[in-house]
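User: Small ask, check this?
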Amino acid sequence: MFAAYTAHGAPATFVAAPTFGEDGHELFVGAIDVWWPEVQGFLETQHLPTRVAVELPGSPSLTAPKPLSVAGQAAWARYLASNGYEKAFAVGTQRGYGFVTGARTTDEAASRALANCGKNAPDCYVYAVGNERARS
């Protein structure tokens, strides 16, 4: 893709990003501080704007679901820190959790979070969608 893009004279810089979590796609929403400096520098060399146009809201003030394991609590913290709205967090009534960030829609996020949770618990429900507590 890089070669095809630059073969026609388009400006580009290839940056090999570090490993990030279990799915490298999460780097985009979960670690802006890792990739933004590279992107900002490139955009500035092209005389393109890099200033913040809209401030994103702070982390939501949602209460963590109970019960959550230590790993589940860490996952909940990553979920809250995600700046995306197309995200969902599902939990089991006794144990287990699953979450998705960066989905195409909130419905897709909820469905995938339930599927992820279902790998570890038989009785999952969607706890949060976006930055809001899911309706029960």
Remarks:
- The chain has two domains: 2-45, 70-133.
- The two ends are 44 Å apart (CA to CA).
- The beta strands are 88-92, 97-100, 124-129, 132-133.
- The helical segments are 2-7, 27-30, 32-45, 70-81, 106-118.
